[in-house]
Amino acid sequence: MGVSTVKIAVCIKRTPDSESRFRIAASGATIDESGLKFDIDDFAGYAVEAALQINEKSGGGETVVLAVGPDTVQESLRKAMSMGADRAVQLKADAVPADGLAVARALAAELTSGGFDLVLFGKHAFDTSAGVVGTATAELLGLPCVTAVSQLDVANGRGSARRELEGAAELVEFPLPAVVTIDEGVARPRYPSLKGIMAAKKKPLETKPAQLGPVRVTVQKAELPPERAAGRIVGEGAAAVPELVRLLQTEAKVL
Amino acid sequence: MANVLVYAETRGSALRKVALEAVSAARSLADSTGGGEVHALVAGAAGVAAAAAQLGAHGADVVLTAESPALASFAREAIAATLAERARQGSYRAVVLGFSAQGRDLGPRVAAKLDAPIAADVVAIEAAGDALSVKHPGYANKVILTLAISGAPVVLSVRPGAFGATESPRSARTENVQLSADPGAERVTVKEVVEGAKGRPDLGEAEVIVAGGRGLKAAENFALVEALADAFGNAAVGATRAVTDDGWRPHSDQIGQTGRQVSPRLYVALGISGAIQHLAGMRTSGTIVAVNKDKDAPIFKVADYGIVGDVLEVLPALTAAVAAARSAGH
Q: Is CB count within 10 Å lower at the N or C end of chain A?
């Protein structure tokens, strides 16, 4: 046997630029999307890059990108293909529900017969910031799952990973096929080359209906958090330290 | 009336703060839906029954204990299977976990096993009859979402620090439970746990966090930040993304949108300009202090108290003054 190649699925989400200033839409239950720039979610971008690097290292395999959502997700799927993914699948839905288990159900239904050795997700997406879909998909597929991975290696049908904990890290090993959710640190996503962008236009993008099943978590209301009241400058340089400490003791009462 | 099942997370054999917060949140949920029981599962290598008193003090009626030498490392599959099995047997309104590294991992597993809806990183829970809604900050804390959840049980993971660990004493009965899967047969095996900074509290649990940014100019100047953390007694040390990207501090120290999101009682930002990416991780802190040489830096817009100046000049004076104030207060 030569170097083993792997077939990888990467499930991505399209989210607004995280540096945006958000407004609430008139419905009161969602953000106002007008004027926002959308792209592959940051963590999903790391997952795409991780998949491409694994397949480049082995010199073979396949990277398939999947996304649940309306036709606007095709732009993100195309971008992943311009980075180097081989083909894409859109699981079409009017919107991505807030019910992570429903999204996982749709992805699992598609992935179950795909013969993937590895299924990658971002550890969570910026908009829902929940981190449910990857792990729930693993469970529905009956596959081992490692979450919040900042280093990933696969070889000979096994994976090894570094998983970030609070103030510590776990080094783990697991058999393939497996699901892995990707944290920052794995790999900086590459920019698509002009050649990549041209090639992506000819790569297959398949659209199927998303089999979400029952949606039991819905957004009732979206609101902006209260602004912090503006504070004050106590003074300049080390000379201001005594006054700062006095305020921390007598006013803020935190010292 | 409906019971609530809680996963009470431990580190070593000690309960984590988030475990008590999860029990408190469960207690208040059970009380608001007619006064059901709170059942808390605590799993570990040995001695977990010792946690029963503390869990009872925070509102657990029943403490379910599971012990096995193989639980010395995180047995994600066995614990998820045990929680789901228990939830199936009882008539539980909810399964509550902490939104910690463990809880983030376990929650979706349990939800998928039970085919139960899940809401993660919850900061408020409201139950009225059969209706349940929760608040969850999305968009890196920039938008607060109110989620309506239908069905029972529901799986909820609570944000560390969002629910207080409130005393609600009762004498909990203890019950041994069998693990529903062999923790020695996990498909994901832990080879090693790499510990972070020794002797400091975790960023998610610390009352005081001192954090450094590029304004510190060099990795070795973090010794001054460490010294201030020591002066506070039990502070955690954090850093900005720029600093962890440069390798001055480990990735696990990063506070911000792509790192840890923290809410300590006091947050001291040292040489941090206050990029949106960083503010997303700390703006919910109680009191914020900032030291930065640029008076127009965005960090001063969220800081309660600011000092404009070179952090390397201010830090030694601040450390000395904090140490003096604390020793005078004792």
A: N
Tens of pLDDT, residues A57-95: 999 999 999 999 999 999 999 999 999 999 999 999 999
Distance of CA B141 to the CA centre of its chain: 15
Instruction: Establish if A252 belongs to a structural domain.
Output: no
With respect to residue A156, please indicate whether it lies within any of the assigned structural domains: yes
Closest CB to B191 among A132, A171, A218 = A171
- Evaluate whether B3-185 and B208-329 have a shared fold: yes
Q: Which amino acid is at B260?
A: R
Mutate which: B141, B142, B234, B279, vs A, most A CBs within 10 A: B142
Task: Tell me the longest C-alpha to C-alpha distance in chain B.
Answer: 62
Question: What residues have CB less than 8 Å from B185, skipping those under 6 apart?
Answer: none
Q: Choosing among B77, B118, B249, which should be mutated to test the A contact, i.e. which has the most A CBs within 10 A?
A: B118
Residue A150 lies in a domain: yes
Alpha carbon B176 to its chain's center:
27
Which sign, positive or negative, has the C-alpha torsion A29, A32, A33, A34? positive
For chain B, the domains span 3-185, 208-329
Strand A205-209: give its sheet, edge to edge.
A205-209, A87-92, A62-69, A7-11, A118-122, A178-182, A145-155, A158-165, A168-175, B189-195
Residues with Cβ within 8 Å of A223's Cβ and at least 6 positions away in sequence, in order, are A24, A28, B143, B144, B146
Asked if B139 and A145 come within 8 Å (Cβ–Cβ), the reply is no
pLDDT (tens digit per residue) in B243-270: 999 999 988 899 998 888 898 999 999 9
Partner-chain contact B322 A146, CB within 8 Å: no
Q: Do B194 and A104 touch (CB under 8 A)?
A: no
Q: Provide ipTM, 2 decimals.
A: 0.93
CATH of domain B208-329: 3.40.50.1220
Cβ–Cβ of A173/B188 closer than 8 Å? yes
**Structure-block tokens of residue A233:** 């400058």
Q: Which domain holds residue A156?
A: 7-209
Who among B74, B252, B314 is closest to A167 (CB)?
B252
- Give the closest residue to A10 by CA, choosing from A56, A34, A43: A43
Tens digit of pLDDT for each residue in B199-208? 788 888 889 9
CB contact under 8 A, A248 and B252: no
pLDDT one-digit tens code per residue, A8-41 = 999 999 999 988 889 999 999 999 999 999 999 9
| pTM of the entire predicted model | 0.90
- Determine, for residues B101 and A234 on separate chains, whether the beta-carbon distance falls below 8 Å: no
Q: Are residues A223 and B133, on separate chains, in Cβ contact within 8 Å?
A: no
Nearest CA in chain A to B235: A255
Q: If one looks up domain B3-185 in CATH, what number appears?
A: 3.40.50.620
CA distance A97 to B191: 37
Interface probe with B: pick from A46, A141, A179, A216, most Cβ of B within 10 Å:
A216
Which chain B residues have a beta carbon less than 8 Å from that of A23? none
Residues of A in contact with B147 (CB under 8 A): 98, 217-220
Q: Torsion angle of alpha carbons B138, B139, B140, B143, nearest 10°?
A: -60
The encoded tokens of residue B226 equal: 């460490």
